[in-house]
């Protein structure tokens, strides 16, 4: 992995990630596991993951414009990024979160 | 042309007790066409091309539900924001913001921006279901609109998943027991671009907006309505400041009560020609003739006599302004102005080509509902005919006559025949709908041109078969005795 391909988070910057789920569905659990793994590998110590269960608070689905489940939102760093799905494709997840540029 | 009650309709009437429960839309005319409304607790697909009025119909369904039937409604919009929706219906007098405030309507704008979405792995649309469920629960909605879920196809790439989710969505709506309207954009060779009709088995309504010869007409057709009889015609509809009005064929053919009551023609001697009593109440009368034969004068005398008896008359003038009509008729001794002042006469003048035929028809319906006249005069219908094709014109006239008969309103039409030839025919082709047909013509005798009048037909009464000469005097139409009056009356038919 050359530095050109990598877009390392700047020092001290914390990535704020939010995962929207609807109950403990297999897709949601897979997504969370995949997200944790990716973060551990690429953002160790520099990330926060918040899980929002829309089943418990459906109003947030409206307020936050969530349609697909699971939806991952990168709140910080800006700009906002959304990835939907269980994040089973690690490469695509990295590109989607802009942890890596598209090849 | 004539819409005879089909065997399907007859059996439908008999089995109506077993029909599915329905939810009235409250939309003018739509509940008649659907015989009671949309299938209760089930989804209905409303489809049509852009600008056909489907979103408006959907909103009106919700607003009327909330205001007239005490049924709160949830609007899930995929295309317009709540602000845009509110602005669009404000012109119809619907205060969406207030209804939202009063918890009678809930709006959720589902914004789908394909550019913002990256897909990675398995997902479903549970978020949409949660939002829909939340919108329903927040106000206890009985009605739901999805406008239009086809937008989903632009936002997500997994078509198989989308179709499975849409199928699940329809099931969800049924399980919740809400009466739903789903809108869909008309596709090439299919009712909707994404084939939504596959998922809706109960009721499909198609809206259409055409412009023919610069005249725009909107039409509605019920493509399918499971388990219920419904009209299969195309029904014209109109969008105006009060919302949507669908124009049903008000009567199903020939079920009118026939009245024995008679109405004077306003011309004593003409009454005499019609079995001494005049027209039947609730019948349709056609007066045809070439230009300048006195058709309008006859119409006006009929109107004035009715007004003098205190009967309300609606006079639809397609050639003259009310002022012009009053002035011209004063010259033959009929003063309409006092009747108009008293409120028993309403003269409405309009250019036929200004509106499409359907628009005219809807407008006439509205005036009749409002004014509740006993007599309606259309002068002349030939002008109205120029606003559409002959076929359209016949259909429209048929509808109008049916409607008037169902209300027991006496209808009086004048028609300008073209040229001297074929005086007994009318290019309107409505003769079978007419009960009494009077012809007015010029007769040339010894170098002078006189006017003559005769009764071509008059159903259900003895009538004269003489050509009567008449004069237009300052006291109106004056019939002369026919030369050698032979009272050889025709048998009634």
What is the CATH homology-level superfamily of chain A?
Glutaredoxin
The outline of chain B comes out as elongated
Largest sheet of chain A: 4 strands, mixed
Radius of gyration of chain A: 14 Å
Supply the CATH architecture of chain A.
Answer: 3-Layer(aba) Sandwich
Succession of helices and strands of chain A? EHEHEEH
Average pLDDT number of chain A: 85
Number of strands of chain A: 4
Radius of gyration of chain B: 28 Å
Question: Notable features of this structure?
Answer:
heterodimer, A: 103 residues, alpha+beta, Glutaredoxin, four-stranded mixed beta sheet, 3 helices, B: 493 residues, alpha/beta, Rossmann fold, 2 domains, nine-stranded mixed beta sheet, 15 helices, 31% helix, elongated, disordered N terminus, disordered C terminus
Structure summarized in a few sentences:
The complex is a heterodimer of chains A (103) and B (493). With 103 residues, chain A is an alpha+beta fold. Chain A is 28% helix and 23% strand.
Please characterize this protein's 3D structure.
The complex is a heterodimer of chains A (103) and B (493). Chain A has helices at residues 26-42, 59-63, 90-96, and strands at residues 15-21, 47-53, 71-76, 81-84. Chain A has 103 residues and is α+β, with helices and mostly antiparallel strands. Chain A has one domain (15-96): 3-Layer(aba) Sandwich (Glutaredoxin). A four-stranded mixed β-sheet of chain A has the order 2-1-3-4, covered by helices on one side. The model of chain A is unreliable at 1-6 (pLDDT under 50). Chain B has 493 residues and is α/β, with parallel strands linked by helices. Chain B has two domains: 7-246, 3-Layer(aba) Sandwich (Rossmann fold); 262-479, P-loop containing nucleotide triphosphate hydrolases (Rossmann fold, 3-Layer(aba) Sandwich), CATH 3.40.50. Helices cover 31% and strands 26% of the residues of chain B. Chain B contains 15 helices and 23 strands. In chain B, the strands form four sheets. Chain B has a nine-stranded mixed β-sheet with strand order 5-4-7-8-3-9-10-11-12, sandwiched between helices. In chain B, a hairpin with a 2-residue loop joins β22 (468-473) and β23. In chain B, α13 (357-371) runs parallel beside α15 (390-406). Classes of the chains: A alpha+beta (103), B alpha/beta (493). β4 of chain A pairs parallel with β6 (117-119) of chain B.
């Amino acid at each position: 992995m050359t530095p050109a391909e990598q877009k390392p988070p700047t020092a001290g910057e914390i990535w704020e990630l939010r995962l929207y789920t609807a109950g403990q569905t297999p897709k949601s659990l897979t997504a969370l596991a995949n997200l944790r793994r990716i973060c551990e590998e690429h953002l160790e110590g520099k990330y926060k993951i918040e899980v929002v269960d829309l089943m418990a608070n459906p109003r947030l689905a409206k307020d936050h414009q969530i349609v697909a489940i699971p939806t991952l939102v990168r709140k910080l760093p800006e700009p906002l990024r959304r990835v939907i799905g269980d994040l089973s494709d690690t490469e695509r997840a990295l590109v989607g979160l802009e942890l890596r540029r598209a090849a | 042309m004539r819409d005879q009650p089909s065997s399907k309709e007859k059996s439908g009437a008999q089995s109506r007790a077993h029909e599915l429960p329905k939810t009235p839309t409250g939309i003018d005319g739509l509940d008649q066409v659907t015989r009671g409304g949309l299938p209760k607790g089930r989804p209905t697909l409303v489809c049509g091309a852009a600008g056909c009025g489907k979103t408006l119909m959907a909103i009106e369904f919700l607003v009327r539900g909330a205001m007239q039937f005490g049924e709160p409604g949830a609007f899930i919009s995929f295309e317009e924001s709540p602000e845009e929706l509110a602005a669009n219906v404000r012109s119809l007098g619907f205060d969406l913001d207030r209804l939202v405030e009063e918890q009678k309507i809930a709006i959720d704008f589902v914004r789908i921006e394909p550019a913002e979405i990256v897909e990675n792995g398995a997902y479903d649309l549970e978020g949409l279901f949660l939002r829909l469920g939340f919108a329903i629960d927040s106000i206890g909605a009985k009605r739901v609109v999805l406008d239009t879920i086809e937008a989903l196809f632009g936002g997500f790439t997994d078509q198989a998943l989308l179709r499975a989710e849409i199928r699940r969505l329809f099931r969800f709506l049924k399980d919740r027991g809400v009466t739903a309207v789903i809108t869909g954009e008309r596709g090439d060779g299919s009712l909707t671009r994404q084939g939504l009709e596959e998922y809706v088995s109960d009721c499909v309504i198609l809206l259409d907006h055409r412009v023919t010869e610069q005249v725009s007409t909107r039409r509605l057709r019920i493509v399918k309505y499971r388990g219920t009889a419904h009209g299969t015609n195309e029904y014209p509809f109109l969008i105006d400041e009060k919302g949507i009005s669908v124009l049903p064929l008000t009567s199903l053919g020939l079920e009118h009560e026939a009245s024995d009551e008679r109405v004077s023609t306003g011309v004593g001697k003409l009454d005499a020609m019609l079995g001494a009593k005049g027209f039947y109440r609730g019948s349709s009368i056609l007066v045809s003739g070439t230009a300048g034969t006195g058709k309008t004068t006859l119409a006006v005398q009929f109107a004035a006599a009715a007004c003098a008896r205190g009967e309300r008359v609606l006079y639809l003038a397609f050639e003259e302004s009310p002022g012009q009509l009053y002035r011209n008729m004063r010259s033959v001794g009929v003063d309409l102005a006092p009747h108009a002042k008293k409120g028993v006469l309403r003269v409405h003048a309009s250019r036929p080509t200004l509106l499409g035929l359907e628009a005219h028809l809807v407008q006439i319906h509205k005036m009749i509902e409002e004014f509740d006249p006993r007599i309606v005069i259309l002068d002349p219908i030939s002008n109205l005919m120029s606003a559409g094709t002959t076929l359209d014109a016949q259909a429209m006239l048929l509808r109008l006559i049916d409607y008037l008969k169902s209300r027991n309103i006496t209808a009086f039409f004048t028609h300008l025949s073209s040229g001297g030839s074929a005086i007994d025919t009318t290019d309107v082709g409505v003769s079978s709908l007419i009960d009494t047909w009077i012809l007015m013509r010029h007769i040339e005798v010894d170098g002078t041109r006189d006017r003559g009048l005769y009764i071509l037909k008059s159903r259900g009464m003895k009538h004269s078969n003489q050509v009567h000469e008449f004069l237009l005097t300052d006291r109106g139409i004056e019939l002369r005795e026919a030369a050698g009056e032979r009272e050889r009356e025709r048998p009634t038919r």
